[in-house]
Amino acid sequence: MSAHAVGDQPGYVAGRTLDDWNAAYAKVEAYFQALRVGNRLLLGQLVSRVLDRAMDRAQSEPATAPMELAAEEMERVVTDWFAAILEVPPDESDPLLTTRGRMALLLADMPDRWQDQFLKPAPWPAEFVTAMRESFLRAGPEFQISRMDPRPIDLGPMTTLTAWGRIGWLRMLVAWVAFAVLLVIVFSMTR
Amino acid sequence: MSAAPDISAQAKEPEGAASSDTVRRRASHRPRAPRRRSAQVFLFFSIAIGLTGIGSLLFADLLWRSGWSSSRAVLLILFAILFLLASIGCVHGIYGFFLLRSGRERQMRQFGDFRHRSLDGANTALVFTIFNEDVRRVLAGLRAVHQSLAATGELERFDFFIISDSNEPDKWIEEEQRWFALARDLGALGRIHYRRRLVSEGKKSGNVRDFLRAWGRRYRYFIVLDADSTMSGSTIVDLVRIMETNPSVGLVQTAPRLVNARSAFGRAQQFANRLYGPIFTAGLNYWSREAGNYWGHNAIIRVEPFMNFCDLPQLPGRKPFGGQILSHDFVEAALLRRELWEVWLAPELGGSYEEGPPGIIENAQRDRRWCQGNLQHFLVLFSRGLHGNSRIHLLFGILGYLAGPLWLAFLVVSTWILWYRENTGLSEIVVGAFTPMINLSQTQHALLIFGLVMTVLFLPKVLSLVDLALDPPRRRAFGGIATAAAGAVVETVFSALHAPLQMLFHTKFVAATLAGTSVHWTAQRRGGDGTSWGAALRQHAGQTGLGLAWGALTWWLDPKSFWWFTPVLAGMVLSIPLSVITSRESVGQALRRAGLFLTPEETSPVPELDDLERQMAAPDTLHTLGTGAHRGLRQALVDPYANAIHVTMLEEKKANPQEAASFATLGVGSEGAHRLGSRLLVKGPEALTGDERLLVLSDPQLMLSLHREIWTRSPAELWTGWNLAPAKPGA
Q1: Distance CA B119, CA A62 (A)
Q2: Interface predicted TM-score (ipTM) over 0.90
Q3: Which residues, 6+ apart, have CB-to-CB distance to B487 below 8 Å?
Q4: pLDDT value, residue A168
Q5: I want to staple B530 with a disulfide (CB 3.0 to 4.6 A). Which of A24, A64, B262, B583 is the partner?
């Protein structure tokens, strides 16, 4: 990173303020931490590597904010590395490459076992490569799609009852008869 | 059951190959229940009818002595119905007692010699159905079952499925996270599976049906477990062995034991379940036999007939009776039996557990859910082709909820008679009893009926204690006979106070169901120490007021009659403190220290339950981005691993035609969904409705692109809450 400071005014690196680079640093660091790269030495190295690339671009892209540059470089570094280790062409043909890569990191247990290999250029330990390439997540076994259709239940006498329920006038009639029965009960009980 | 098992045919049959006709034909080879069985069932219920006849005759005579009236006729009818229900319970207890005394192992004889049966080819799915549950508890239970099965050496025969209908984003993401962590931790990513439906149709039965459509044909059996279920590995293996040994059996229901209660209410229910449950289930098993019932979980089911016959149709008419069959389990058992598949209860199998509600209010909330479903069975009750026993199961389910309003009606009519007598100013002329055999005063006559009712109600409890006293190992497991008897006395007092509240709750639920309205529940604020006074006041104020008013009225009408009402009114008047105090864990634990309500699972360690308890007591190691609102959405969008798991699982759904169609139904990939995503990025989760948040979470491409945007956009273009703090374990 120091190479970029040559020729900069005090308080500036690669033509941008230290505060701008500080914010960019924090963002990249947060992402690697979210990937559970916990080793401080490795974390610092990874962030520096990304920021170096961002600073290279900063000279020629004065309109782009350092954080934006850093985020783009971070994405590029990670995607290229996923493509390399998973042996996938690093183009736009696989929109799920990063998802697959992150999943492979998790399944290969990168945070606990292989932090030092993350973003490192080839060659990698064979065990790590195998773990990355052969890891895939399946939520369930192969589908064996089959039909399951409801069979009608013959409700017997209830069929008639439920059919009656659809008739508006009959419902009203039932309500009036019920009211009349209620009157009879009240009359009878008060005698 | 008694026929020789057709093992070879079953072993050779390709999975899912048989047509429904074949299935039915094969099952129909089983001989029908012998005529002797019908006579036994007739005798069983005739005893209850006989008891009801005696009680009703005495009651009719008592009413006759003070002058007959139409209101007394109504009262007599109500008494007869209620007494019949109590008598049926009593006969279950009496039969159960003698059956258990004649040997508990007898209960299992109908399954033949299954213990050494091989499980070759008997692929079985363990299906955990969940809906916005405590995810950690569910997964801890699953882990306990997994480990217990592993200890049997038969783990490779089983696959585990968590099938979720959760519609809270936080729960959805937490389920994915915890499932992944558990499966990876156990090295069981290809054995423990997780699936959440994008569109939930048909509630729990629809959830199970969709599971069967996607994977059912891979398995010969499936075992349904609820979110709070736990089963021992040996019990699960035994269930599969029973099915393998008995090819005419379509379903075996275990009798889940209530466990893990901490509150006083929960422990009282648990104690009652463990002490009285065995004789009731033995009695139930006696008359239901191969036409048993299904209680929705902790049961093994043969996939093929279930898929052929148990996809439930919509009932005709409108709600509350029409539409989807809510309490599906009873009906599924009835349909299996209709097609001549046997449905058995295995009460002595053991190793099957569930948890109960911790307080009176939670218990009522659960009843509210079940009430409509059980009343709906009225439509199915007279369906053609059902086995008579299946109709009895359905009828008991209905009466379980109608008993409340019937009892209330009995009390109202009694009060009415009192009021009428006082209001008319007519003096009561007491005449002699109709039979010279009963030469009793009116009070003695009333006390005789009261004694008969109490005997019918409490005899099963006494028989349970006698059974316990005669069984030394079980007696010790309950902490000794004195401790158990003391617990039974306290439990009886509590249940006497609780019963009137159940009556009022059930009356309200039945009325609300018939009116097609919902019952309002205030949100529970449950901490470590149960129902708050405020919540209890809101839920029970009406019951307390009714108890006080009713008490004042009866006292004003006739102080002598008032005392007959006090057992019922006491529960109503004391409902608020009763609800609060019994919901408290501190009270439950104090009772435990005092030796009350001890159960075998509390006095002797059960490996699966110990494992579960250990897991729940251990620190939570799940990586989360905090505990605030929308934590699930934040996790899935910000955390690179949570996002990867979520997107991968959504992508996988595209291979299932059912789920693929759901993407379109929801509007996944639409312009509208993208607009929602943009709004979410800039304004945060609160700018979206619940359904909109679910839509965003259901869109794999959108989730992927939002994750990228959050990590690459300038903070000035993002909602401030998308903070990029690293994940913390157990935060």
Answers
A1: 71
A2: no
A3: B271, B275, B478, B596, B597, B598
A4: 59
A5: B583
- Tell me which amino acid residue B149 is: L
Residue pair B283/B92 in contact (Cβ under 8 Å)? The answer is yes
Give the pLDDT band of residue B519 (cuts 50, 70, 90). low
Tell me the pLDDT band of B700, cut-offs 50, 70 and 90.
very high
- Which residue, among A86, A99, A112, would best test binding to B if mutated, counting the most B CBs under 10 Å from its CB? A99
Q: How many CB atoms neighbour CB A14 within 10 A?
A: 22
Q: How far apart are CA B347 and CA B284, in angstroms?
A: 10
Amino acid code (one letter) for A147: R
Q: What residues of A are in contact with residue B313 (Cβ under 8 Å)?
A: 150-153
Judged by CB atoms closer than 8 Å, whether chains meet at A138 and B194 is answered as: no
How many Å apart are CA B85 and CA B396, to the nearest integer? Answer: 9
Distances (CA, A) of B298 to B81, B193, B389: 32, 19, 21
CA-CA-CA-CA torsion sign (B660, B662, B668, B671)? positive
Beta-carbon count within 10 A of B527 CB: 8
Cβ separation of B214 and A98 shorter than 8 Å? Answer: no
Which residues of chain A have a CB within 8 Å of the CB of B314?
Answer: 150
Q: What is the pLDDT of residues B311-336, one digit of tens each?
A: 998 888 877 788 889 899 999 999 99
Q: Is B120 left (phi over 0), alpha (psi -120 to 50) or beta?
A: beta
User: Closest approach of chain A CAs to the CA of B448, in angstroms?
Assistant: 27
Q: Could you report the per-residue pLDDT of A166-185, keeping only the tens digit for each?
A: 555 666 677 778 877 887 77
| Cβ–Cβ < 8 Å for B183, A137 | no
**Alpha-carbon gap, residue B357 to B365, rounded angstroms:** 9
Structure tokens, B696: 């965003």
Output the CA torsion sign for B177, B181, B184, B190. negative
C-alpha angle with apex B128: B123 to B129, nearest 5 degrees? Answer: 130
Q: Are strands B221-225 and B158-164 parallel, antiparallel or unpaired?
A: unpaired
- Cβ-defined contact of A153 to B383 (cutoff 8 Å): yes
How far is residue B263's CA from residue B590's CA, in Å, rounded to a whole number? Answer: 10
H helices of B470-558, in order, are 472-477, 481-515, 533-557
Q: CA–CA distance from B589 to each of B71, B264, B479, B483 (Å)?
A: 48, 7, 15, 15
CB atoms within 10 A of CB B442: 15
Residue A2 sits at φ, ψ, to 5 deg, of -65, -30
Least-confidence region, from A9-18, B203-212, B474-483? A9-18
| Interface with A, mutate which of B213, B321, B387 (most A CBs under 10 A) | B213
Return d(Cα B478, Cα B474) in angstroms, integer. Answer: 6
Query: H-type helices in B162-232, by residue range?
Result: 169-185, 203-215
Q: Which of B511, B491, B508, B503 is nearest to B568 (CA)?
A: B503
pLDDT in tens, B625-680: 777 788 999 999 999 999 999 999 999 888 888 888 899 889 999 999 999 999 99
Q: Which of B219, B623, B714 to mutate to test the interface with A (most CBs of A within 10 A)?
A: B714
Cβ partners under 8 Å of residue B116, min gap 6: none
Tokens for B193, please give them: 């599976």
Contacts of A148 in chain B (CB under 8 A): 209, 212-213, 216, 307, 311
HSE, side-chain direction, 13 A CA sphere, residue A8: 18
Q: Is residue B491 a contact partner of residue B310, using CB atoms and an 8 Å limit?
A: no
pLDDT of B489 reads 97
Residue B219 parent element (H or E): none
